[in-house]
Amino acid sequence: MEDKEVKVDEVSISDDADNVQPSSEEKVIEDEKKIENDYETKLAEVNDKYLRLAAELENTRRRAALDIESCARNRAMSVAKKFLPVMDAIEAALKHNPDDSGIKSMKMAMENAFSQIGIVKIESVGEILNPQYHNAIQVIDAKASDGKSDVKPNTIIEEMQSGYMFGDTVLRTAMVVVSK
Fold first, then answer.
1. Model pTM greater than 0.70?
2. All domains of the chain, ordered by start, with CATH?
């Protein structure tokens, strides 16, 4: 038999994974993944900022609309309050001269204008006193006022000055006389 020599190249294998050098192709793939992750992170940040700004803009629009509505309502209430003394004068004139057709027509015109604007008179006589709508300026014995004894306590007997509401807001409480 013949002896043949076989040469084998020595290769050292290490358990240390850090010493393994990635190929240039692997490096490119890792770099691309890192860049892609950076872009995704930046995109998420920009998208979050966009959504927050859009929500803030919508809230600002909503607040501005509410402010405009509130301002218009307050202006209308201010104008309406200025007309209440005119209605009081018409009612006082009608008490002194109940048959005057001119005064009656003025009262009807004012009531029509009030209803178009949204001003409603607060009903008082015969109602139970409600401090939200009525201001009791006098309390009298129910028997002394009209001789009847069936009037319940805190019932409004007479209205001295009418009260008015604008929508659900009290413009002026009614000044009333209440039974004991």
1. no
2. 119-180 (2.30.22.10)
